[in-house]
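Table S4 entry, Elongation factor-1 alpha.
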Amino acid sequence: MNLSNLPLSIKGLFTGYILVIGVGLMMAGAQIMLTHGASDGKVGLSIDDVVYSYYGNRSNSTLENKLNGSMKDKASEQDRKAIIHWVKKGADEQAWKTDIKPIVASNCAACHANIATLPNLTNYAVIKELAKTESSVDISSLTRISHIHLFGIAFIFFFVGLIFSLATGFNEWLKILIIFTPFAFLLLDVSAWWLTRLDPAFAWLVIIGGVGYSLASTVMLSTSLYQMWILPWQGKISNVDAWHKNT
């Protein structure tokens, strides 16, 4: 049994899975760009984005880094400067009540007072904490996203590899290497999060891990689609051409 001679029903099942996973990988890339890609205030994912996401931008407070990065477009330049100036002056509670709270109410409260997963910036104690110098991502958050990432993506790679294992034209050891590659890069990616939390020099490994498992998955997904649908037609065309030559 191989991908070329599978029943049409199985090909349909595998194709539906591959297409959805392909779109999912593209959405994951977009989500990374929207969340981590703006950490340094510039468009596109860079080493600084990775460093700021896991090690932190320790020259400023968390609030300043967000206002200069991913939240830069959520408030006017004047309002952003007012909040940053308040932070630099020590985040005084009286100034918060008279000057900063109305700015937060008009620019931030729609999300940061109503979405449970976001810090409630209308609470002085919460925003005071964010006004402190930024540190690395906390261990509880990193543990949570690590185990979700490992469990979830490992399942995806398992089924992608299972489908690809039916491909033909590969040396058996090469096929094993291709199937194992995304798992290895996934482990590298998640391990690099923890290493970058300790030392920003490891940020390169995060990008290498993500690119590595994305490329390996793309090779398996595209090869599987090719061998299920295009290769059989090429074989039929070759047989017809050979029949015409013989007759």
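The first helix runs from residue 8 to 35.
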